[in-house]
Amino acid sequence: GAGVSQSPSNKVTEKGKDVELRCDPISGHTALYWYRQSLGQGLEFLIYFQGNSAPDKSGLPSDRFSAERTGGSVSTLTIQRTQQEDSAVYLCASSWDRGNTEAFFGQGTRLTVV
Amino acid sequence: RKEVEQDPGPFNVPEGATVAFNCTYSNSASQSFFWYRQDCRKEPKLLMSVYSSGNEDGRFTAQLNRASQYISLLIRDSKLSDSATYLCVVNGEGGSNYKLTFGKGTLLTVNP
């Protein structure tokens, strides 16, 4: 596709369940970012991929959060045993190069944990 | 000092006004700087990059002051459609040369 695609666009899940969020970056973009935005708040950095490698996972809030990227393309963010405080919009972005060029965002996945 | 700090606003201005946003960053080694715009319940989108010499795009002017670690965005002749949250973005905070760090944003409302 022409832009960054995220799925699902909305996800409602019960507390304690696992969820998987998917990101399809723009073809050819080597850098991929995951951010989280809670209602009325700024963007919180979660993790960055360069190719399939994640040199910095320090933004992941807890060990319930994990992410992977395969084939230098699709990335999946997994949240295990979801908690209500995990409710937020999860945004994925990709760019040609690490941090020096424009990052294009997907429309996000709105996660609600009930 | 926070990594990237912005005046949260909100700024409420009439149409046609000139408004300026400021942003400071903590890491003097930061390399790239951007202003993004985020409409309500939408994803952020690049407004403009910020170059050392300063740059202008129509009604928008961005400036960088490396000595003071300060970035600004000036909007002239503001339009109703300029109403949005403006995000200051810095690359290289936290010692990395890839991490894009976002400020919390400044909310602008342009009133008729």
How is the secondary structure organized here?
The complex is a heterodimer of chains A (about 110) and B (about 110).
Chain A: E1 5-7, E2 10-13, E3 19-24, E4 31-37, E5 43-50, E6 53-56, E7 65-69, E8 75-79, E9 88-95, E10 104-105, E11 109-113
Parallel strand pairs in A: 2-11
Antiparallel strand pairs in A: 1-3, 3-8, 4-5, 4-9, 5-6, 7-8, 9-10, 9-11
Chain B: E1 4-6, E2 11-14, E3 19-25, E4 32-38, E5 45-50, E6 55-57, E7 60-65, E8 70-75, E9 84-91, E10 100-102, E11 106-111
What report would you give on this structure?
The complex is a heterodimer of chains A (114) and B (112). Chain A has 114 residues and is an all-beta fold. Chain A is 0% helix and 50% strand. In chain A, strands 2, 4, 5, 6, 9, 10 and 11 form a seven-stranded mixed beta sheet that branches. In chain A, β5 (43-50) and β6 form a beta hairpin. Chain A is globular and about 35 Å long. Chain A starts with a strand and ends with a strand. In chain B, strands 2, 4, 5, 9, 10 and 11 form a six-stranded mixed beta sheet that branches. In chain B, strands 1-3-8-7-6 form a five-stranded antiparallel beta sheet, with no helix packed on it. In chain B, 36% of the residues are buried. The mean pLDDT of chain B is 90. Chain B has 112 residues and is mostly beta strands. Chain B is built from no helices and eleven strands. Chains A and B meet through β4, β5 and β10 of A and β5 and β10 of B.
Strand content of chain B: over 45%
Order of helices and strands of chain B: EEEEEEEEEEE
* Alpha carbon gap, first and last residue of chain A: 33 Å
Poorly predicted segments of chain A: none
Distance between the termini of chain B: 37 Å
Largest sheet of chain A: 7 strands, mixed
SS field, number of helical segments of chain B: 0
List the secondary-structure elements of chain A in sequence, H or E. EEEEEEEEEEE
Kindly estimate the percentage of residues of chain A that lie in beta strands according to DSSP.
over 45%
How many β-strands of chain A, per DSSP? 11
Principal-axis shape of chain A equals: globular
> Whole-number radius of gyration of chain B?
13 Å
Helix-residue proportion of chain B? under 10%
Structural class of chain B: mainly beta
Described by strand count, sense and barrel closure, the largest sheet of chain B is: 6 strands, mixed
Broad shape of chain B: globular
- Quaternary organization: heterodimer
Taking all Cα atoms into account, the compactness measure Rg of chain A is 13 Å
Derived from helix and strand composition plus strand pairing, the structural class of chain A reads mainly beta
